[in-house]
Design goal:
By secondary structure, the chain is of the alpha/beta class. The protein is built from 17 helices and 14 strands. The protein folds into 3 domains: about 150 residues, Nitrogenase molybdenum iron protein domain (Rossmann fold), CATH 3.40.50.1980; about 200 residues, Rossmann fold, CATH 3.40.50; about 35 residues, Single alpha-helices involved in coiled-coils or other helix-helix interfaces, CATH 1.20.5. The strands form 3 sheets. It has a 6-stranded parallel β-sheet with strand order 1-11-10-9-12-13. α2 packs across α3, α2 crosses α8 and α10 crosses α11. The longest helix has 19 residues. The termini are far apart.
Length: about 425
């Protein structure tokens, strides 16, 4: 990990830059995949699955029998854990429902908003070295609460053409309507255009590698919405002498093990604390099954020492982390001044893993500095808002003259006439 002490603000932008991804001819690859899926449909998906996942698939749709068999392969302990997570996520997201509030903006003029579900949503679930069944909970539960009618899930199969049983079980428990054995950019293309088997959707959700991320951005150009720009996982921990160095190290490693392009940052007012955290990182890293992956991520990661708390807070906002852990006696100050973060965890006993799995908050969060402009996933991501208004005769009399004046000033006579006709009718 790289170490910085009181870096000047002129260097912050460079320090906060994320690890660069190898893009190469990524755009060309994505365009080619989309074009092939658009013209060849299911055949293209089977060909790409054989090419990229080394799996020969005859039937893309997961059968009910496969789902039922998956349930038998899941331990009761895991089933109970999944149920707890589903319940907590459901509670937190159910509280986000918006009640209709009618506002009388002028006498006789009522305006309000009503939420409507996005009817068809596509859920992408990575299935490689870490089958992220927890992400199904984060996506499908709020989609269910919102009232989405079709929840179409795509995830890559293993080389035998099977889907991880935890993914199938969790999908069944959260109301997913169909599951398909297809991953990568080709899955995003299928959800964008639709194929013989896979329906086209209106909005795409879920994380993925650089190909999936690029494919989602390409899908936007084709009229399909996406949840947010998302890249590799990241975490920033602010730790002073009240922090437990072993806990801090475990949190840093929990994100570093996601992938070699992940990034973790530890900020502190104490060099002593940073050295203690580094020692714990080294000790814990040696015991991790995903040590090689975590080591590569740590090579891109940072220790930053600030003597002045205000500067540390400003640096955190400049970095705009996906996850932020605050273990500090100055917690109130840091919380009050945190403007840019995806999700915040407070105190020594609030590991980032809690948000990843079972506290109830959503773990689909903006990365790469997008926390400056994007929120984490919420119930509202699965809905759109429709505005309504009702004008009585009193209402059109109240605001009608202003509308006439404004329309005439813009040279839009028909707009003015639409009001004038009504006002004249009222005068009869």
């Amino acid at each position: 990990m790289k170490f910085y002490k009181n870096p000047p603000k002129s260097e912050w932008a460079e320090i906060c830059s994320r690890p660069a991804l190898e893009s190469g001819n990524l755009t060309t690859i994505i365009e080619d995949i989309f074009n092939t899926v658009a013209t060849s449909g299911d055949k293209a998906l089977r060909d790409y699955t054989l090419k990229f996942d080394n799996a020969r698939i005859s039937e893309l749709l997961v059968s009910q029998e496969e789902i039922e068999n998956a349930a038998a392969q899941i331990s009761n302990e895991l089933k109970v854990s999944i149920a707890l997570a589903i319940n907590n996520v459901r509670q937190f997201h159910s509280a986000q429902k918006l009640e209709r509030t009618i506002i009388e903006t002028s006498p006789g003029v009522e305006c309000w908003q009503e939420e409507r579900p996005i009817e068809k949503v596509g859920l992408y679930i990575p299935g490689g070295s870490a089958p992220l069944f927890s992400t199904i909970i984060m996506l499908a539960v709020p989609a269910q609460i919102a009232g989405c009618k079709e929840l179409v899930l795509c995830t890559p199969p293993d080389k035998d053409g099977n889907i991880n049983p935890a993914i199938l079980y969790t999908a069944a428990q959260t109301g997913v309507t169909s599951i398909f054995k297809v991953g990568g950019a080709q899955a995003i293309a299928a959800l964008t255009y639709g194929t013989e088997s896979i329906p086209a959707v209106y909005k795409l959700f879920g994380p993925g590698n650089q190909y999936v991320t690029a494919a989602k951005q390409f899908a936007q150009q084709k009229g399909v919405a996406i949840d947010m720009p998302a890249g590799p996982s990241e975490l920033l921990v602010y730790a002073d002498e009240t922090a437990n160095p072993a806990f801090v190290a475990s949190d840093l490693l929990s994100q570093a093990e996601h992938g070699p392009d992940s990034q973790v940052v530890c900020v502190s007012d104490s060099e002593k604390v940073l050295k203690m955290v580094q020692a714990e990182v080294d000790a814990q890293l040696a015991l991790l099954p995903r040590k090689d992956i975590a080591e590569k991520a740590l090579a891109n990661s940072l220790f930053v020492n600030f003597d002045v708390l205000k500067e540390a807070s400003q640096f955190i906002n400049e970095y705009a982390p996906e996850h932020l852990i605050i273990c500090s006696e100055n917690e109130k100050f840091l919380v009050k001044n945190t403007l840019n973060a995806g999700s915040v965890f407070l105190g020594n006993y609030s590991p980032e893993s809690a948000g990843d799995y079972a506290s109830g908050t959503n773990h689909t969060l903006p990365t790469s500095g997008y926390a400056k402009t994007y929120s984490g996933l919420s119930l509202q991501a699965f809905t759109k808002k429709i505005t309504f208004q009702r004008l009585t005769t009193q209402g059109i009399r109240t605001i009608g003259p202003a509308i006439e004046t404004m329309a005439e000033a813009e040279g839009l006579q028909a707009h003015k006439n639409a009001v004038t006709l009504r006002l004249n009718e009222i005068k009869k």
